[in-house]
Amino acid sequence: MMAARRHRHVHGLHCGHGHDHGPAADLRRIEGLARDRFRLESFTPVRVEELAATEIGFPPRETRIEFWSGNEDQHQYRIFKPAAQVTIEDLPPWWYKDALILDDYPYCDCCG
Asked: For the segment 73-87, what is each residue's pLDDT rounded down to a tens digit?
């Protein structure tokens, strides 16, 4: 049986420390990169998380970007490195956005 994933979610809008460095700043920066890259409106929900992956053979940290379009389409993209190391080059081109839509079939523990 696969070990459960431990999630650490720090969304930049809820941190409120007034500092622009550290994990919360990295997540806000990546949210901005995703909004720019995928041409998302300011009202489009975007979630960026850094997660500890516990699956065998996976890097110890990953960054997950999720956003929603339309009424139901959830898009998800995983980058297998910590948020502090993510750059714009890690994101796919904007026209790849529709390929990131999650389908309605079940995923294994490592895919979603």
From this structure: 999 999 999 999 999
What ranges do the domains of the chain cover?
Answer: 20-100
In the predicted model, residues of the chain with pLDDT beneath 70 are: 1-21, 104-112
User: What's the farthest any 2 CA atoms get from each other in the chain?
Assistant: 42
For β-strands 61-69 and 46-52, DSSP reports them as: antiparallel
Q: How far apart are CA 24 and CA 15, in angstroms?
A: 7
Edge-to-edge order in the sheet of strand 6-8: 6-8, 46-52, 61-69, 73-79
Beta strands in the chain (DSSP E): 6-8, 46-52, 61-69, 73-79
